[in-house]
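Hi again,

Forgot to attach this to my earlier email, sorry! This is the prediction with zinc ion bound. I've pasted everything inline since the attachment limit keeps bouncing my files.
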Amino acid sequence: MPFADIPGDATARLAEYFRNAIRAGRLHHAFLFCGPRGVGKQAFAFAVVKALCCTSATVDFCGACRSCRLVDSGNHADVWSLARAENKRDIPIDDVREMIRRLAVAPIEGAVRALVIEEAERLNHYAQNCLLKTLEEPPAGTHIFLLSANPSGLTDTIRSRSQRIHFAPLAPDKLAQILAERYNMECGAARSLARLAGGSLGLALEYAQADASGMARAVADSFALLGRGETGALEKILADPLKGDLKAEERRTALAMRIELVSLVLGDLLRLMWIEDESVLRCPGASGALGALRPHLKSEQVEETIRLAADARANLAANVNPKLIVSSLVEDLGFILGEPAIGSP
Ligand SMILES: [Zn+2]
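Structure tokens for the complex follow:
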């Protein structure tokens, strides 16, 4: 699969830039790929790595040669990726030291070594400092790709030594077309998912697996119930992944998605209050339930609920007990969204 098969017009321009740089032998040694989750930063970084290592194509990759297959399977002897370990908040200095040690050894397969660091903002302060010297003076033929949805978590020195490239989401119509054509999704479902995922292909695929469109509608219905003082439905949606026999990390991931959907539907409620146009909604299927709730609320109340959902996500990332997060979020949202019910006949 060459660069041309990676979806998106912006990606095509980016691919051209990288092809030219590789052809001219002046590819920068350190890149910072920024952009929201699921917009293809990781896929593109590995595409560049494959183009550097491919033994079949020149300044592109074939996806089929031994080298491309080794990169795809994570077994290429000169290509490494570094990510936060499950249940860990950050990437420690020891992991970075180990990678620097590997980069110092001569390449085994060819002339290129590459390191891809996912969620680079998770490198802790010591790890970032440790990486700095290698970013400034990398061994010959070494390319480092830092991927981040939150580059403000990286030090100024790391950012200034990397070439920054921004990855934007696709237009929802374009993403819907890709979901329908490449992933055989029914057109209506593809359109809903594309809007819900805000144009992010990775997020749309995650959402498809979890039936997030249906879940978002259920969240909106549960808000309408909160308005009547009933908290059970929202609690059930949020607490559901905590009851099964999932691993701790899987529980957090499933809960994080549910809280994300809560934020998203609350955002729709606010958009509906401001603009009164259903075409701007991320979850159009929620418009009925939200429309019923809207007349009873002020926008300040909804803004407060969005802040609470953001706090819940931050607490989850900071390893706060998930049950505690669910119960306080449900209680707080119930209090605010249920406020108009107090004193009503
Ligand atoms: Zn190849």
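DSSP finds 15 helices and five strands in the chain. The first strand starts at residue 30 and ends at 34.

That should be everything now.

G.
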